[in-house]
Amino acid sequence: MARHGLVTTVSSRAGTAVVVGWVGSARDRVAGARGLLDAVGRPGATPRLPIGDYAAVLVYPDRIVLMRDCHARIPLFFRESGGRVSAVSTSARCLGDFERLEHGYFCRYLTGNLAQPHSGLTPFSGVHRILGGEVVELSVTGQMRGRVRGRVGEADALRESTADGLRLSGAGKNLRLALESAVGRRVGRMTVCHVSGGTDSTSIALLAARLLGRGQGRGEDLALLAGRFDTGELAGERSYLEEAMKEIRRHAPAARPVMVDAGDVADFDDFEHHAGDADEPHAHAFRAPFWSRLHGAAAELGCDILMTGCGADPIVDANPLHLHKLARTGQLRQMTKQARAWAAGTERGVRDVVYDYVMRPSLPLAAERITALVHRGTVLGGLGSFARPRWLRSGFAAAHGYREASIAESRFVFGRRPEQSFLDAANYLAAPDSVSWHRARQDGFFLSHPFLDREVTATMRSLPVAATFHPGRPKAVLREAMEDLLPSRIRDRAVKVPFDQLYARGLRKHGDELIDLCRSARHPLVEEMFDVEVLCRAVREAQLGVGNAESWDRMNSSLALVAWLDGLAAPRPRAPGAPVIDGSCS
Predict the structure, then answer these.
(1) In whole angstroms, what is the distance from residue 274 CA to residue 268 CA?
(2) Tens-of-pLDDT digits for all 586 residues of the chain?
(3) How far apart are CA 197 and CA 245, in angstroms?
(4) Kindly report the CA angle at 207 between 262 and 443, in degrees rounded to 5?
(5) Exposure of 366 by Cβ count < 10 A (0-12 exposed, 13-18 middle, 19+ buried)?
(6) CATH architecture, domain defined by 2-149
(7) d(CA 379, CA 547)
(8) DSSP for 33-80?
(9) Boundaries of each Asparagine synthetase domain copy (predicted)?
(10) If you classify domain 184-311+431-461 with CATH, what class do you get?
(11) For the chain, which residues make up each domain, given as ranges?
């Protein structure tokens, strides 16, 4: 038995398990690893996948099993040739040949923020991603025997019939129980909670404080981590943050508040480092400076778990795509009524609501083409999630399957039942952790998100629309669930200051550097893939505020790809401790 950083290794008569992350409970990683080894080792059908954030290699006398939990927070890759797996790692980069890149992967990556985690492709030929919930079985010599999606646990088997007639109060009780379990599973030896002063992060920190305050842990085992802004728009969050800290410490007086000065942080700070060193190109690398500063403070505390409030927006809020379900099932009068209520509650027009949640999911690619035609004057105007950005060369896109990738991505995001696909996609959109995982190998702790816990998502899936849809009151179920704990000022706030100022400041500060990065990129694939001058025009337009969040995301992902490819052209030394799981399977 051994624990080293992020890895737990256990052995028994059944075999040996190497687990990155935690299974069942973060507090007892050894017991979870033993349980996983025994469960998968039993003969019979595909094992149920326990709740947790983990990637695992299980070695038995007659086979080798590679697997990840269904939410896939921790990556796992294998190198394969001729049907034989020769190495396994949490890093695709350390397995890959920099001279053999998979061009189709880059088209898939460029279709949108969700493209990477649910696709088996990686940037390197011969290196494959194990998907969330997937179990890969090998012979003891590494020969591929099969790949199957593992069955989930009982938490996902909630029957919708039990929710018939459920209203807000009952839904809140169900969510509270699920969240308490999710937080309890994630409490470690030294737990840090990120606190922003919003409803989501404050809820998680309060539940952790109550858990530890009741004697199920020691008060000194909890720290409260926050980024503080003394000037600008985000300074308006400070009073909420202070009130949240005060209330949390009332439940756990020994909890340590750690305020990190982030006033000088801007998006795209040291972008070439954050984007270029990542394991894969990562669309959210522009935001890495802020999170890296917080992660550095958490590492100094010696924490092993950092809990966040990520995921609450799509998971515990009302699902607007139920309007599509009403239209699809012919309930047009009810759809119109609810569309009007949704429009009034979000201060939008009914036409916009119907377009976004009924028409666009039905014909996503056609809707984007129409929108692009209306906004033809700029590079960013009208650019949505799937249409080819004008800086991606048409020849490269045609040669390497960009249209097919766009179709596949739109089907994943919306699917035959968009209201269900929305929740599946939220897992990847709400907490894109590729950059955080790259940092985790250095800092030695896990980033974990209770709102993305399988029990929480299953609970929200089981709730009827009547229990979650309350016009003008976002995240009504969460507010009801936490009514006795959240300070009224935080519980009742309708909006939170976004990080738009950090993004705008970053573009003003680093726009010229980003353009120079594109023009001076050394990797030949950059010029083959992109019309660099058109991409530079997009950066200039974004500096002026042209476009919207979707079009900026498309630009950000392309810039991250340029920096990543440039990093391959001049490879840096491998980071200490990487890869976490690696070695021959023979």
Answers:
(1) 9
(2) 556 678 999 999 989 999 999 999 998 999 999 999 998 887 765 567 888 999 999 999 999 999 999 888 889 999 999 999 999 999 999 999 999 999 999 999 999 888 888 889 999 999 999 999 999 999 999 999 988 876 655 444 444 435 555 778 889 999 999 999 999 999 988 999 999 999 999 999 999 999 987 765 544 589 999 999 988 888 888 999 999 999 999 999 989 999 999 999 999 999 999 999 888 998 889 999 998 899 999 999 989 899 999 889 889 988 889 899 999 999 999 999 999 988 887 788 999 999 999 999 999 988 888 887 777 778 998 888 899 999 999 999 999 999 999 999 999 999 989 988 888 888 887 665 667 777 787 888 888 999 999 899 889 988 888 888 887 788 999 999 999 999 999 998 877 888 888 999 999 999 999 999 999 999 999 999 999 999 999 999 999 999 888 999 999 999 999 999 999 876 555 444 444 454 433 3
(3) 8
(4) 45
(5) exposed
(6) 4-Layer Sandwich (3.60)
(7) 8
(8) HHHHHHHHHSSSSPPEEPSEEEEEEEE-SS-EEEEE-TT--S--EEEE
(9) 175-565
(10) alpha beta
(11) 2-149, 184-311+431-461, 320-422, 500-569
User: In the chain, what is the straight-line distance between the N-terminal and C-terminal CA atoms, in Å?
Assistant: 22
- Listed in order, strand segments (DSSP E) in 234-332 are 256-261, 305-307
User: How distant, in Å, are the alpha carbons of 60, 157, 347, 452 from that of 457?
Assistant: 33, 11, 27, 6
Strands 222-228, 77-81: pairing is unpaired
| H or E element that contains 174 | helix 168-186
> Residue 17 in contact with residue 57, Cβ under 8 Å?
yes
Find all residues with CB under 8 Å of 245, minimum gap 6, and list them. Answer: 195, 224, 226, 257
Name the pTM for this structure. 0.91
Q: Are 318 and 465 in contact (CB under 8 A)?
A: yes
Three-state SS at 450? helix
Sequence-distant (≥ 6) Cβ neighbours of residue 526 within 8 angstroms: 518, 532, 562, 565, 566
